[in-house]
C-alpha cells in the first residue's frame, strides 16, 4: 500500500472534497478512490515523494571539493499524519501512520535477502486489509458536521533529535519540501480528551507499520455540546395546570 493511495482514500471517505472529484480505482483487489484534480494530485504526489526521501535518504556532498561521496542513512521518520482541519485550521481528526524498525539495505546490493520477510503476495494481502479498514472507517467516527470548508495537511513527525534529511535549496537550488508544522496539527499537540482507535498493524519483516485514527478533543467537545443543545430543544416546557371556570349563574 502506498501512502498516496491511502491519502486519496482518506480525503474521499471523510468527504474533504465533493465525491464527484474522485474516480473509482482498484488497488490490491480493493476499491479505492483517486482525485481527478491535477493540482491536488501533484501536491499529494510531491508530499509522498518527500516522505520516501526521508525514509531512506541518499545525501550527496563534495569532500575536499574533489570527490563525490554518498552516505546512506537509516530513515528518521517516526510518523506520517494526515490531519483533517476546519476553516479555522483547528485539527478535527488525525490519521496516524506509525513507522518502526526500518532496515537499512545498501543501494548497490539489490539482491540482498532479508530473513522472515513477507512474500509479495502476503504483503499485498496485508496492504489490502489496510485499505479495507480505511474505506470502512466512516462507520467508526463521528461525522464531520462543521460549517465551512474542510482542509487537510500532511505532517511528518521525526524521531527524537532528528532533522529532515531531504535535499534542500543549498544543494539542488529547490525549495525544501518541509516546513515546521503547527503544534496543534501534531500528535504531541493532542488534547487530553482526544480518542484514539487502532485500525491495523503489520510487521513486514522490513518495516513495522500501524494505522490509527484520532478524533481531537475539540471535535468531541463540539459533538457533546451539539447533543446537549438538541436534547434541550426537544424538551417541552411543563404545562401550567388550569382550573375550570364556573359558569356565571343567571340573575333570578
Automatic annotation (TrEMBL):
Residues of the region (Disordered) are 230-252
List compositional bias (Low complexity) regions by residue number: 235-245
Provide one Gene Ontology cellular component.
zeta DNA polymerase complex
Q: Gene3D superfamilies, alphabetically?
A: HORMA domain
The UniProt record lists the HORMA domain at 1-213
Please give the superkingdom of this protein's source. Answer: Eukaryota
Q: Which family does it belong to?
A: Belongs to the MAD2 family.
Designated name of the protein: HORMA domain-containing protein
Q: What is the lineage of its organism?
A: Eukaryota, Fungi, Dikarya, Basidiomycota, Agaricomycotina
Amino acid at each position: 500500500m502506498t501512502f498516496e493511495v491511502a491519502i486519496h482514500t482518506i480525503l474521499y471517505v471523510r468527504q474533504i472534497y465533493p465525491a464527484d472529484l474522485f474516480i473509482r480505482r482498484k488497488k490490491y483487489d480493493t476499491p479505492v478512490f483517486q482525485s481527478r484534480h491535477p493540482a491536488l494530485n501533484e501536491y499529494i504526489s510531491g508530499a509522498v515523494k518527500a516522505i520516501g526521501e526521508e525514509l531512506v535518504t541518499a545525501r550527496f556532498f563534495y569532500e575536499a571539493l574533489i570527490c563525490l561521496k554518498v552516505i546512506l542513512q537509516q530513515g528518521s521518520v517516526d510518523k506520517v499524519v494526515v490531519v483533517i482541519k476546519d476553516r479555522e485550521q483547528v485539527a478535527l481528526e488525525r490519521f496516524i501512520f506509525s513507522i518502526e524498525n526500518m532496515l537499512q539495505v545498501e543501494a548497490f546490493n539489490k539482491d540482498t535477502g532479508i530473513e522472515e520477510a513477507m512474500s509479495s503476495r502476503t504483503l499485498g494481502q496485508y496492504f489490502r486489509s489496510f485499505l479495507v479498514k480505511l474505506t470502512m472507517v466512516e462507520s467508526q467516527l463521528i461525522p464531520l458536521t462543521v460549517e465551512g470548508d474542510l482542509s487537510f495537511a500532511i505532517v511528518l513527525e521525526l524521531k527524537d533529535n532528528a532533522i529532515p534529511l531531504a535535499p534542500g535549496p543549498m544543494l539542488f537550488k529547490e525549495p525544501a519540501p518541509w516546513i515546521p508544522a503547527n503544534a496543534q496539527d501534531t500528535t504531541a499537540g493532542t488534547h487530553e480528551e482526544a480518542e484514539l482507535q487502532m485500525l491495523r498493524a503489520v510487521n513486514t519483516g522490513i518495516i513495522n507499520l500501524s494505522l490509527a485514527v484520532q478524533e481531537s478533543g475539540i471535535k468531541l467537545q463540539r459533538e457533546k455540546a451539539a447533543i446537549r443543545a438538541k436534547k434541550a430543544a426537544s424538551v417541552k416546557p411543563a404545562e401550567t395546570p388550569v382550573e375550570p371556570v364556573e359558569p356565571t349563574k343567571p340573575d333570578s
